[in-house]
Structures are given as C-alpha cells and as structure tokens.
Amino acid sequence: MELPWTEKYRPKKLSDMVGQEAVVERLQAYVEKKSMPHLLFAGPAGTGKTTAAICLANAFLGDIHHDFLELNASDERGIDVMRTKSQQRNEATSLKDFARTRPISGDFKIVFLDEADALTSDAQTALRRTMESYTTTCRFILSCNYSSKIIEPIQSRCAVFRFKRISREDIKKRLLYICKHENVAHTEEGINAIIYVSEGDVRHSINILQSAASLGKVDEQNVYQITSRARPDDVKNVLELALAGKFLDARNLLDKLMINHGLSGEDILLQMNREAMSLEGVPDVTKVGVIDLVGEANFALVEGANERIQIEALIARLMLLTKKH
Fold first, then answer.
1. Domain that holds residue 188
2. Could you give the C-alpha distances from 271 to 138, 197, 229, 238, in angstroms and in order?
3. Across the strands, what pairs with 22?
C-alpha cells in the first residue's frame, strides 16, 4: 500500500527542509560537531518540527533506529508516560529504562516527545528529572505548539528552536514538486487556493493536494469543495454588501455559503476576520470596527449562542457601523 504523500515526501535530511533556514543552520552545526543538547521545538502545526527531529535521528543514528524512541504525549498525558511502559515497534519499553541504558550504536540515544505541551505538570516534573539524570546516554527532543505550557525547568535545560509558518513561495514550490513527480493535473488557481486554505501548514497543504488529485484535477473548485471553505471573494462580498446597507442581499449570499459549502458560523467568522483588512475602498477605521464586531460574534458563539442569530446580527451591526462612520 502506498504511503500518504505527507510521509512519502517527508524530507529525510536537514538539507532537504524548506522554509526554516535559520533552524536548519543551527541544527546542522550540531550534526557537524556530532553532539547536541536537549532540544525544544516550538511552533504552529505543519511547520517541520517532527520532520526536523526525524532528520536529526537519521543524521546521528543512521538507518539503525534502535536508539530512537518516539512518543506522543497527547496519547498519555499523565505521569505514567514517564514511569510505565509504552508500546513501540511491538516492544514494551519504559521511557526511563530506555533513557538510562547505553546506546547500541552512536554516542547517545534520542527520545522524541511530540506534543509535549499536552503533558500534565506532574509528568513534566518527572521528565525534568529524567532529562537531568541520563544526559550521558540520552538526548531529548521535545515538540510543542505553545512553549509557554512547558515548565521553566525543562525550558532552561533545552536549546529552544522556534519554527515559523512556511511562506507561500516555499509551499508552492513543494506542491509543484509533488505535482511533477505524481503527474498531477493542476491549475495555478488550484495551487493558490491550497496555499490560502492551509495558512502556512505544509502537512495540511499536501493532504489537500492529494485529496484534490484523487478527484482528477487540482483546481479551485475541487479544493474549496474538499476543504468545505468558501472562496475569499464570496466572503468579501458578504462584508461589502453588509457595509453597503444591502442586508437582504448579504443574508441571501450567506445562506448560499452555509448551505452549499456546509460552513459553520465559526468558519464564516474566521474567513471574515481574514478578509476584513483586504476590503477595497473601505476606511481603516471601518475595517477595525468590522474586526471588533467579528470578535464579539465569535465570543458569543463560543459561549453557546445560536450561530444563525449571531451571524445575522453581525450583518445588521455592520450596516449600522457604516452609518456611524
């Protein structure tokens, strides 16, 4: 069975990674010196944190991964993940036992703990002690979306790497590279739609590409259909109609978006927030007011309000906003 494209085209070497040049340069220095401290990777999803950890394991350990242990902290969040046994490669291995035994090959073992910010404070405290006690035999790589959720004693023991969202140009190059190797029919608009929807998440963009390719062609219509997202111009039209005082027209277009694309109220608000600053011919003070009103409606939805009522109330407030300004 063929691997998903996210795994099939995952870089195996640090030099193959794109969009994280500053991070790669620092990691390459560790590889050249054949030594590294404990590492903490922080940043948004799909920006290369797991890939960087696997590339480091390949560089230090080669093809023999008996000395590499990968755990996902979101599966087991408590202190038991530190003390008891975890299943990997059909072997039962406790994290502490793995860390304190000598490596089979190389100078040290590597433990990659993904989504470490999901660990409880007790589990992080136990992890801190393990990292301190077995530094001679094992190095830890922690990955998280929010470094603020990692306790200070762990952060101080790690070299922190912050991953940024991948630029549109780098994502586009990667998508076109995959299209070339997989012989995928595509259009420029389709690729741009994937970039718009993925918001700097390479993994998400490749998943969308594979899903759209399964329909025969990667074009704008297939991309928005698969992702259940509205075209940016449609959402912008809703805002423009509301600001122009055309309540019924804006409401009818909103009905079309929610029915045809299956969008929830929160999806609509997120896209409105993205498109507010790109409105043409609208004063900045009005754009700021739009974002403020979208934020109020989103808070109401989070608190459990009816999404239909809140979205229509937002359109009504946008009409009043234009008259006010």
1. 168-227
2. 45, 10, 9, 11
3. none
